[in-house]
Hints:
17% of the residues lie in helices and 30% in strands. The protein is an alpha/beta fold and 270 residues long. Strand 10 and strand 11 (190-196) form a beta hairpin.
Amino acid sequence: MHPRSTFRVGSKRVEAVSDGWFTMREGFMNVPGYQHNFEDESGVATLPIASFVVFGDHVTLLDAGYGPHQSRSLTGGALLDELAAIGVQPADVDVVAISHLHLDHDGWLATEHAEAVFDQATIHMGRDDYELFVRDDAATQSPGFKMAPHLREVLTALYDSGRVMLVDDATEIVPGIVALPTPGHTPGHLAFSIRDGGEQLLVLGDAMYCPAQLTDADLTAMHDVDPVLARRSRELIQREVEAHGTTAIGCHFPGLQAARVISSEVVAVS
Length: 270
């Protein structure tokens, strides 16, 4: 069973759905045994691979899952069915915004036959991620994060046709959704601020893997390509969340539960 969550941000509705599961293994976080916090009765620590649909002036999809694939630590394949269950077909999506170009966040951008899945949408992503993963073939990344050729082909064609928008600075991509550069996990990583009626929900991508990072800047993940810059981005998020009572959720937060920080304590938000 794939988790779903619904959030209200002013007049906007945000639906969180999961494409599948990410298995957190020993050593993924820098605290020994940390994955035990998420183990089920069989002793496996599984976390969702989330995407977020924002209903407002446009239908906006934040992140695009792993795709119909399975590997040692990732299982995808559910996103299109999960979108259909909330009344969204690929052609209904106006805008897709990608937090970063790791394979569990961009998997449904293209079919293996090099066809765009969300063929009516414009695609937003960080410029530095596009330069690294699409133009430079992720030369400095480990082999497991190299972009699949069919996805590179589609993104290149979409860019050439003017449908890929590259983000350098804080940018309102549609009314009420601001892309915020949060580099470190990848060079062009983005978080997304959904704002309306004086309320805010921060969608963190992989800037944070778990709610505990909202108060513990020393808790790090093994795939941060620039740990110093990643920590700086986490600290900026921490200050925003604590200072303004902002609700935040990452793509792998357990059960797709958001969280706030109240009196320096992390509190789950249903």
